[in-house]
Task: structure prediction
Amino acid sequence: MGLEIARHLGAPLEIVLVRKLGVPGHEELAMGAIASGGFRVMNHEVLAGLRISEDDLNRVIASEQQELGRREHLYREGRPALSLEGRIVILVDDGVATGATMRVAVQAIRAQKPRSLVLATPVISASTLREFENDAVGVVAAMVPNELNSIGEWYDDFSQLTDAEVTSLLAGPHRKV
Result:
């Protein structure tokens, strides 16, 4: 989706790599999220409510940091990240349920001092939309349901892209400043 928006606007495309920190045994439930650059957002209610041990948390973080590093190396193919300083940034996601991964992406982008930041997504839960609006993030969304159990329920086909597909999409001319 980000590629199509970048093409339509004639804008460069950049990636912000984030990983959800899934609860062991219930990986779809986010206990937090991390982003490249050492950014982290934790869901303290989930951590406390499920009594996640520090050892379990650290194991998940280490595993997801390793995957972030792998993807960063593979997807960038030696290209440096584009500077976002002073730019208008449109952060695109396929959907936002709890917002854990989006919050950490917002942190990572804000650290680069963009001129403004807008979140664009086809679907976002009403409660998460309110949180982002309260945090002065502009949000553009096609659908805002009160209940959002999973993003996949809003798609006919929600299959994941392969590494090869991502690498191919990122290698095009839209990467240029």
Observations:
- The helical segments are 2-9, 44-49, 54-76, 100-110, 126-134, 163-170.
